[in-house]
Amino acid sequence: MARDTTKHRPVYKTDLRDGGRPRPKSLEAVGLLCASARELLGSESNPGTLLSDGKRSFASENVVNRDHALPNPSWNKDLRLLFDQFMRKCEAGSWKRLPSNNHSPQSFQDFQTRFVDPKLPKEQISQARLFTRSFEDGLGFEYVMFCNDAEKRVVCFFQAGPYLQGAPGFTHGGAIATMIDATTGMCAFRAGGVVMTANLNINYKRPIPLCSVVVMKSQIDKVEGRKVFVSCNVRSVDEETLYSEATSLFIKLDPNKKLA
Amino acid sequence: MLRRGCRVSAGLFRAPRIAPGLRSSTDALVSRFCPEKTDLKDYALPNASWCPDMLSLYQEFLEKTNSRSWIKLPSFKSNRDHIQGLKLPSGLVAATDKGDWRIFTRCIPVAGQGYEYVIFFHPAEKKSVCLFQPGPYLEGAPGFAHGGSLAAMMDETFSKTAYLAGEGLFTLSLNIRFKNLIPVGSLAVLNVQVEKIEDQKLYMSCVAQSRDQQTVFAKSSGVFLQLQLEESSQ
Q1: Can you tell me the distance from the alpha carbon of B80 to that of B93, in angstroms, rounded to the nearest whole number?
Q2: Most A-contacting residue of B81, B92, B96, B155 (CB-CB within 10 A), to test interface
Q3: Which is it for the CA torsion B224, B227, B231, B233, positive or negative?
Q4: A249: nearest CA in chain B?
Q5: Does ipTM top 0.95?
Q6: CB A194 within 8 A of CB A252
Q7: Which pTM value belongs to this model?
């Protein structure tokens, strides 16, 4: 049977949203792997849709598996520049971009069986979404996190959308608290495994204008047994303005103890 | 193209002190905040997603509003709607507000999916109660509300309390001690108390617990900056 040789090379839909910029090599590699996997499994009849990141999407996995920590049309210039700058650092080796889908980093099955009553109703589970990913593009939290495991740091670039308003024209203190919790939590998770927030202490120095981009830098201060101490500061892109400072305490969960 | 940045005066948190006698009284602030007639949609009203606990506790507090000791606060889509005719002090004007900007705690409009809450304020004792039911879009750990969503609910309750009790406008600090997780769809009762007003700052405390008070979800303290809003020229 004659083989259609064009199937060997994945054809990327021209992604006008992305400005047609060349994609990093790693994504092309994923695309190639997917294309060859499809061939092996013989599913030419239902090739699915090729997403901008090279992965194929099928109706059932589309919503759950989308990686939100990638540029989309709502990202402003500052956010894109910071993203590009850190993607270059990733190629150099010490930094890693953290993908982010609609659910919390720890796998649901894992969390359920280890910490919670497994009889939690399934309807509730299927409806749920990670809070920071519950919005349409650009309206809520637009962010990407990069980690440096050797230095135990997590950097988060965050753009607050129009649905995060507090005082008119400014970002809600609670939205800032949510991102600080998410960033310091990720830092603690990378260093100590599954953790739960125990304390969050935030000093707000200057209000953050809505729809602007801020740089949140977090690091592990110390680990004492099951306690993980993390600090974080929030600055403007040019680092001239310090918006907030925070310290937080996370507790490593004990797999032998149920939570609820 | 979104305008970046805003003119924030370097002395933002060193605003001129207003003599206590010139500050608006709580009664004046409350009556301006709670318009008798408005076309704006009030989100702090029961809907089909409210659990039985929330509905019954709401009714209890609603009855207390008859004697005017407690006030049910309206909750509009944007804080701009709450301060009609007023604006932030000059030096704090941010980028032009677009029509679709929303207050964070009303960010998810579908009933029951995000924040379901109502705040009752007690002017005489400068305290508030917030009935809060987190929906499935506020999830953090699977099946439970994100710590950040509770932090935001506490900040929001502090914010409305601080404003009505003493023209508190901006959060200066938040210190939250989390004790237990809140299951998605269940009721958390937040009790907020103004502890003191000193040096242009309002100090408040909050306890978030289950209705029967058997489970404490979190305790927190918040400090807000007093800043007078100015009459808007429009």
Answers
A1: 13
A2: B155
A3: negative
A4: B177
A5: no
A6: yes
A7: 0.81
